[in-house]
Amino acid sequence: MKRAPEQAAASKGLVVPRSVAVIMDGNGRWAKQAGFARIKGHEKGISAVRTTVTECAQLGVSALTLYAFSEENWHRPKSEISLLMKLLERFLTQERATLMANQIRLVHAGRRARLSPKTLALLDATIALTAANHGMVLCLAISYGGRQEIVDAVKTLASEIAAGHVAREAIDEAAISERLYQPTLPDPDLLIRTAGEMRVSNFLLWQIQYAEIWVTPVCWPDFGKRELHAAFVDYGQRIRKFGKVL
Ligand code: FPP
After folding, report:
1. Tell me, what CATH number does 213's domain have?
2. Residue 149 has pLDDT above 70, yes or no
3. In the chain, which end has fewer C-beta atoms inside a 10 angstrom radius, N or C?
4. Which DSSP state fits 214?
């Protein structure tokens, strides 16, 4: 019998954030250290994605956003881009059973323009298949950039103002938030980055305003339940003031 998420978390002494975002870095370094080609690191990264997605869903996380492919990643060698897209396509078909079994709803954040018709078709089909699931939302950031997302939101807003649907005076933070790629997702409470770099790399720039940041030296292919739980334990010890005095 499956335990309720709260029970599962409490028994492990974890504090489960409502919304988690992950910069899955270090696939290339992991492969190099192991003496493999870079793509082996990305392949191994898929298993790590499965582990983190199912564990977050089972622990009761409401929204998990994974940085799978950035706008800047289009500048990588063509061969690596094409292999990464193949892996994404494979994930979008092979993981359907796992998504359904765990009541996970898939959504996408990012620009669609440069994604191939095949990638878009698989993405849209898996989004449609999982649309009625009522558990965790899994947001895949693909062809995603934080600055680009803000630019796109501002463009939408400018068109609405030009068309007379929105008044200039009505522009506030909510007006921007409502025009982001996935406006209904809660802002991340916890941002995890693997492979040790201390930067945010154009990820969810608007949404991570008050996210707690947790960085591990472990490369993404080696990131498993142990690391995820360590992040949640550390998160539970943070004092979140949101700029106020407690
Ligand atoms: C960063 O490692 C990782 C990426 C650019 C891609 C992440 C993709 C995956 C984990 C697999 C596909 C994902 C999904 C959701 C199906 P890097 O190549 O920049 O590593 P390095 O900095 O060590 O070179």
Report:
1. 3.40.1180.10
2. yes
3. N
4. E
Query: What is the reported pLDDT for 1?
Result: 43
Minimal-distance CA residue to ligand 1 atom 1: 25
pLDDT at 4 over 60: no
Distance 245 CA to ligand 1 centre (A): 39
Question: What's the structural domain count of the chain?
Answer: 1
pLDDT of 3 > 60? The answer is no
Look at residue 180 and tell me if it is in a domain.
no
Q: In the prediction, which pLDDT does 53 show? A: 98
- DSSP for 38-79, written as a single string: HHHHHHHHHHHHHHHHHHHHHHT-SEEEEEEEESGGGGS-HH
Which residue among the candidates 25, 27, 102, 222 is catalytic per the annotation? 25
Q: Tell me which residue range forms the domain holding 47.
A: 18-150+188-234
Q: Which atom of ligand 1 is nearest to the CA of 195?
A: 23
- Summarize pLDDT for 87-98 with one digit per residue, the tens: 999 999 999 999
CA–centroid distance, residue 25 to ligand 1 (Å): 6
Cβ pair 31, 82 in contact under 8 A: no
Residue with tokens 């898996």: 126
